[in-house]
Amino acid sequence: MTNHKKKINIKMHFEYHHVFATLKSAILLFLMMVGSLHAQVTNNPFKDPIETEKDVITIGFEEFAILPDLEEEAALAMDLELEPGGKRYFVNDLHGILYTVSQNGNVTEYLNLSDNKWNVDLRWTVLERGFTGLALHPDFNNAGSDGYGRFYTLLDSSNTGPNPDFTPEGGNDAHDTLLLEWKANDASASQYDGGSPRELIRMEQPFGNHNGGQIAFNPLAEAGSAEFGTLYISIGDGGSGGDPMNMSQNLTSLFGKILRINPLGSNSNNGQYGIPEDNPFVLANDGTILPEIYVYGTRSPNRIAWDTNNGQMYVADIGQNIVEEVSPVRAGANLGWKEWEGSFRYVSRSGVNVSDPRNDENMIFPIIEYDQKDALFQSSVASSGLAVYRDTDIPQLKNLIVFAELASGELFYVSADQVPEGGQDAIRRILLKDNGANKTALDIIQAKNESQGKDLAYRADVRLAHTKDGKLFMLNKRDGVIRLLTE
């Protein structure tokens, strides 16, 4: 072999090894990057568990009222509110019954949505479907006003014959969710004395879960203001898991939103309700954005509440499999789902990416969030119950945001004045005083079950109701008892 050929072979040998070494380095770098990425994906994003003993607040309670069983099953209490301008409390049962409760705890059936004459065809399950939302117009007892005697129900129906106003982009047409208006002739009557309800909104649900949440009028709105008489409607993302049709971020879709409407108006597409002119997407709307939308990017918004000190609105939104959250709300806000689950990039039902938290200036991130894997909780976890407590009946809770974990019945608080910026470090527990012992809501419910001669509840399903007269009630689906929380 000539020297020239030897030099070429040596050069080719060197270049081959150089290319191989470069390729090997690139592959190793890629594998390191992939490994680093996977190292940042977790189903347990919070390093430290919720403090179980530090700064615990203990409060009392009393049994205020007991809702009757339905076919030997406990009432499924969802919400409670004081009638505007009156003294009765109204309570909706997921089974389809609306009750009134007097100031001394006497319970009266006011309306049964399942009565055949209403043609509602209520469809309920213990956990997510049925008579989910109740709101009384702020002029309910104001004789001569347009809102006199009017109240609103959000419910799930198996009657899917009428064409829906809103449809998803897929799914299996599980049922319809309806917003109905009822009008009593005499607002003070002990039972509903009006006619059939008026249908304001009908939406086709693609799946069986994540339907309607709470509906509410802003209790701070003054008569004559633009906010007075506007109704907020919490709507889930359509269900299944992981928002498979990506409806929460889609501004042409009703799902995964909080809506704001005027139920007495008529400028909606179907003419059955009004779109407030100060809604965030009205002026910018080019026909591709639903003007009813007030907030988007929610998954299963369960409870909403307002702070009487500053008017700030909050929502408790049930997470996928990792993070539960309570978030501030402002007009036009994007709360992130499903791009984000809490402070973290959503990856899948198995994990979130914790490498770059809260890094999007276009999102509104939670003030409170907690880990579904925390040792305090059961396998099923959901944020529920929400109140900004500025009253004086329970001094221990003054100036606190109070919230609940639905299944376990754990009650928590954070400061309403020094609001956290996400995470669970600021979360502290509230326990209930019972015969010299401190207990959780589930403990209390199970003790009641025992005295009722019933099987012990395996979960609490608690909700909080903070009424305009300053009282704080605890509801649940397991023993029928409405409890008034005390100092």
Walk me through the structure:
This protein is mainly beta and 487 residues long. The protein has a single domain (57-486), classed as Neuraminidase. Helix content is 10%, strand content 33%. The chain has helices at 3-39, 441-452, and strands spanning 41-42, 57-66, 77-82, 89-93, 97-101, 107-112, 131-136, 150-157, 175-183, 198-205, 212-217, 231-235, 257-261, 293-296, 301-306, 313-317, 323-329, 340-341, 344-348, 351-353, 368-371, 383-389, 400-405, 411-415, 428-434, 437-439, 463-466, 472-475, 481-486. The strands form six sheets. Strands 2, 22, 23, 24, 25, 26, 27, 28 and 29 form a nine-stranded mixed β-sheet that branches. Strand 28 and strand 29 (481-486) form a beta hairpin. It is globular, with a radius of gyration of 26 Å. Mean pLDDT is 91; it is low at 1-37.
Distance between the termini: 100 Å
Mean pLDDT across every amino acid position:
91
What is the oligomeric state here? Answer: single chain
Determine the CATH superfamily.
TolB, C-terminal domain
Task: State the share of residues found in helices, binned by percent.
Answer: 10-25%
Amount of beta strand: 25-35%
Largest sheet: 9 strands, mixed
Helical stretch count?
2
Number of domains: 1
CATH architectural type = 6 Propeller
Number of strands: 29
Helix-and-strand structural type: mainly beta
* CATH fold name: Neuraminidase
Rg computed from alpha carbons, rounded to a whole number of angstroms? 26 Å
Would you state the CATH class? Mainly Beta
- Mass-distribution shape: globular
What low-confidence regions span 5 or more consecutive residues with pLDDT below 50?
A: 1-37
